[in-house]
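B., you asked whether I could sanity-check this one before it goes into the benchmark set. Here's the sequence:
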Amino acid sequence: MQISEVSLQGFRNLEQLHIKPSEGINVFYGKNAQGKTNFLESLYFCATGRSMRTKYDWQMIGFDQEETHIRVSVQKNTRKERVDVHLKRDTKKGIARNGVPIKKLGDLFGALYTVVFSPEDLALVKEGPGERRRFLDMELCQLSRIYYYDLQQYYRILKQRNNLLKEIQKKTSLQETLFVWDEQLIDYGERIIGARMNFLQRLDVIAAKKLNALTGGLDQLKITYKPNCDRGQMTEKIQRNLQRDIYLGTTNHGPHKDDILFSINGKEVKSFGSQGQQRTTALAARLAEIDLIREETGEEPILLLDDVLSELDERRQKYLMESIDGLQAFLTCTGIEDVIKKYISNENLFYVENGRITAEN
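And here's what the prediction gave me:
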């Protein structure tokens, strides 16, 4: 999979842009706050329909702009894809795939597969369970429209159930209607648990190999799924905790409470790992994503690397660059470090300044 052309207008501080990136590693360099990460964000949005930085679409529209347009052309193994995005203030976003407006966000997944590396990846290891669930869901949604649909339905039903729990506090007779939402919640919840379990079992094997290579065999990584409800036990937990749910007005069991445990040499990385181990764990997980997407789809994902080399020592920089050699990547940095020069030529260099991106060929 290769991005062959990118056009955008009014996206954050990027007023007007049209580039034809090269195969391999494309480097976007310049001082901080010039627009490098904004460019990566536009590609990620075309792949997922969401920003990797904000919940609000309007924040991606330039300060003095009323709307923004993005167009990305993609060459796949057997066909071409085109994604068009139109964002307008106070209006629902418009996304078209191959010229046909999509009705559901799930219809966008598969047009463009991406894997993102950034300094914020440390949150995957260091922060709360929500970050790790987000990681899980975004990767699974890219790989499976069925998972995306199940997830959407689950959270819709969860919201309805929580609203009803609050109503039951005021009118106890409404408890008789709760079973309608419980049955659906359990049905979709069990599907999500099964999909996450299978995904993490595969990710665990691949990421362990990546981290072993990254550390020269010194560290052994283990990724463990920590479901709030084990598979097949959601019904029992929902029923057993009904009165507590009513009292609190919220659902306390289900995949919306899941977590992932990262361990190195038997110790939890979040609590006992050094910052270097935490960073390497996140890197190994991201590298494993590449292999999983390749295995699942037969396509090579597009890599978005946002200022990651400055966070890695020389050994890890070298391993990362060797691991992505042969893939198309978009890499941002403030300067051209020595480790990059071996993998690029001038036609892969783009200078970013004050929202303008200039090819250096």
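One thing to flag: Residues 223 and 262 are 5 Å apart (CA to CA). Otherwise nothing jumped out at me.
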